[in-house]
Design goal:
- By secondary structure, the protein is of the alpha/beta class.
- The chain has a domain of 110 residues: Nucleotidyltransferase, domain 5.
- Helices cover 29% and strands 17% of the residues.
- The chain has a five-stranded mixed beta sheet with strand order 4-3-2-5-6, with helices on one face. It has a two-stranded parallel sheet with strand order 1-7.
- A hairpin with a 2-residue loop joins strand 3 and strand 4.
- The longest helix has 15 residues.
- It is elongated and about 100 Å long.
């Protein structure tokens, strides 16, 4: 009569870890392919001002970025402490801006060229005469869509 006794097991079955290395490597390859490395080392001080009415740039592939600010401590001895313009990883004069922006726009696909935005990341203590000269140079090459990058916050904090 004890032929049909039910087995009573108190152990829980072990979790199979055979596919765990496959999952780990799949995640590793995924993040290696979608991660974008930062391509520009910042050589100028870039404390951005605050603004209350901001709008986020949606399409980063249509943006040409120009940094303006005082050189960092590493470059002050050689370049002085006047505001400088940085394009990619080098310092340039205002006269070189037109050629650089034209070249960057020419590298873009033709259907995106008309929608190119010039993003100015200007230090809040930078010389505004330099920014005005830069804008004049951009007008000469008909790059009229300009964006000023800022932090969201109270604009009155910029007065300090």
């Amino acid at each position: 009569m004890s032929k049909f006794n039910a087995k009573k097991t108190t152990d829980t079955p072990n979790v199979s870890t055979a596919s765990l290395p496959d999952i780990v490597f799949m995640l590793l390859f995924f993040f290696m392919t979608v991660t974008v490395m930062k391509d520009t080392a910042l050589k100028v001080e870039n404390t951005l001002p605050n603004a209350s009415e901001i709008k986020k740039l949606e399409k980063k592939d249509r943006v040409v970025t120009i940094y303006i600010g005082k050189p960092t401590a590493k470059y002050v001895e050689r370049l002085g402490d006047e505001s400088k313009i940085q394009l990619n990883d080098k310092f340039v004069s205002v006269k070189e801006i037109g050629d650089y922006v034209s070249l960057e726009i020419a590298k873009m696909p033709e259907h995106l060229r008309a929608f190119t935005t010039i993003s100015l990341k200007v230090d809040k203590n930078a010389n505004m005469g330099l920014v005005s000269d830069l804008k004049q140079e951009l007008r000469q090459i008909n790059a009229l869509k300009i964006n000023y990058t800022t932090y969201e916050g109270n604009a009155f904090l910029n007065l300090e």
